């Protein structure tokens, strides 16, 4: 396993179509972080067949060190559905974000003409019933003027094969945040409807 160093975090804005998991505020020995994350994900049956994240990228933002665990080359050995659930459950502990969400929300988005920003959605801490989660996500998408995406998401979720897969699909369309984080960025009285 090796940790590569990215000199300029803004270079992540060029990683169109790539996905991964970003851990923020990684202090101490970075190799311990890599080993610890690999162990946690293996114990949670997210990493399968003895797979490990081999190439991890270190980058710095003002005052914090971050680690990117890229999904590239992981293939079938990474259960993204289970990872989506794990990320939601451990958000308060690790604050981990999908790479695409990190680029959009922390780095100002991909370079011009690339992916559309996913709207933040108050899913963390919400009732875990998949229909409730899907409804909250659909409402968020519609409020963001993305009604077609809301319908597409709902169609995909209702035809998915499992709860984990459904959560992974929802995470493709919205950025799950806590109700408090959502309220900070949207002080609309409509929040009471969530």
Protein architecture, described:
The chain has a 5-stranded mixed sheet. Strands 6-7 form a two-stranded parallel sheet. The model is unreliable at 187-194 (pLDDT under 50). The protein has 2 domains: 1-113, no CATH class; 118-194, no CATH class. It has helices at 30-43, 80-89, 91-94, 99-106, 130-143, 147-158, 163-173, 179-185, and strands spanning 2-5, 20-24, 55-61, 64-70, 97-98, 120-124, 175-178. With 194 residues, the protein is an alpha/beta fold. A hairpin with a 2-residue loop joins strand 3 (55-61) and strand 4.
Compile the SSE list and pairings:
Elements: E1 2-5, E2 20-24, H1 30-43, E3 55-61, E4 64-70, H2 80-89, H3 91-94, E5 97-98, H4 99-106, E6 120-124, H5 130-143, H6 147-158, H7 163-173, E7 175-178, H8 179-185
Parallel strand pairs: 1-3, 6-7
Antiparallel strand pairs: 2-4, 2-5, 3-4
Helix pairs in contact: 2-7, 5-6, 5-7, 6-7
Outline:
Helices cover 41% and strands 18% of the residues. The chain has 194 residues and is α/β, with parallel strands linked by helices. The N and C termini lie far apart (43 Å).
Question: What is the H-and-E element order?
Answer: EEHEEHHEHEHHHEH
Report how far the terminal alpha carbons are from each other.
43 Å
Order of strands, main sheet, comes to 1-3-4-2-5
Average pLDDT metric: 87
Largest sheet: 5 strands, mixed
Please give the share of residues in helix. Answer: 40-55%
Residue runs with pLDDT of under 50 for 5 or more positions:
187-194
Globular, elongated, flat, extended or rod-shaped: what is the shape? Answer: globular
Q: Based on helices, strands and strand pairing, what is the structural class?
A: alpha/beta
- Gyration radius over CA: 17 Å
Instruction: Please provide the count of β strands.
Output: 7
* Strand proportion: 15-25%
What is the count of DSSP helices, taking H or I runs of 4+ residues? Answer: 8
Structural domain count: 2
